[in-house]
Amino acid sequence: MTTISASQISRIYAAARDLGMSTKGESDDLHTLVYAVTGKDSIRQLTAAEAREVIRELDKRSVPADTHRRRPAPNPSVYPPGQMTPSQINKCWRLIYSVCASDPSDVPPADRLAGAAERFIGQRPNMMAKNPFRFFTQEQGSKLIESLKRLEYSAEVKKLKRDRKE
To answer: How far apart are the first and last CA of the chain?
Structure first.
């Protein structure tokens, strides 16, 4: 039987502190939990296995991360103010993939999106960059999205006509 390590003791006290449990006094919350899990009064008397059980119990009681929390704002150096927003960029990608699904081609989606941007905006994005639309304004992004919506509609119409002929 190995005895509890200093790191395990620290982890137990830190987890209890994070949960707001009292750790000092005659009948504090932490030692009550330790006694309930292991039957021992002192944390220093625990074995390594018992310490793992206590840590596991403390982890169960911890508050889960809020899954509905909003993502942090994007890094302003990557998406400067006044430039195309991340949601506009995502919309462009969704639209071009929809176009690719309706109108299959050997040309990859990134190249099709770059070509569409050049055709409709007059500016070709550098698709190898971390943010290829870094030099596009929000107004250009809106114009590109509207153009891609029309392109998507025409691709769907072509697909329906093709399907009817078959």
So the answer is: 75
Task: Using the predicted structure, report yes or no on whether residue 63 has a pLDDT greater than 70.
Answer: no
Domain residue ranges in the chain? 6-61, 86-165
Residue 111 corresponds to which tokens in the numbers above? 């190249």
Q: Using CA atoms in the order 96, 100, 106, 112, what is the torsion angle rounded to 10 degrees?
A: -20
d(CA 122, CA 111): 15
Q: What pLDDT does residue 148 have? A: 94
Model's pTM, two decimal places? 0.53
User: Where do runs of H (alpha helix) occur along 6-137?
Assistant: 6-19, 29-38, 48-61, 86-102, 109-121
Counting residues of the chain whose pLDDT is more than 90, the rounded percentage is 37
Residue 32 CB coordination number (10 Å): 13
Question: Which long-range CB contacts under 8 A does 54-59 form with residues at least 24 apart?
Answer: 54/12, 55/8, 55/11, 55/12, 55/15, 57/33, 58/12, 58/15, 58/16, 58/19, 58/33, 59/15
CA–CA dist 152, 96 (Å, integer)? 7
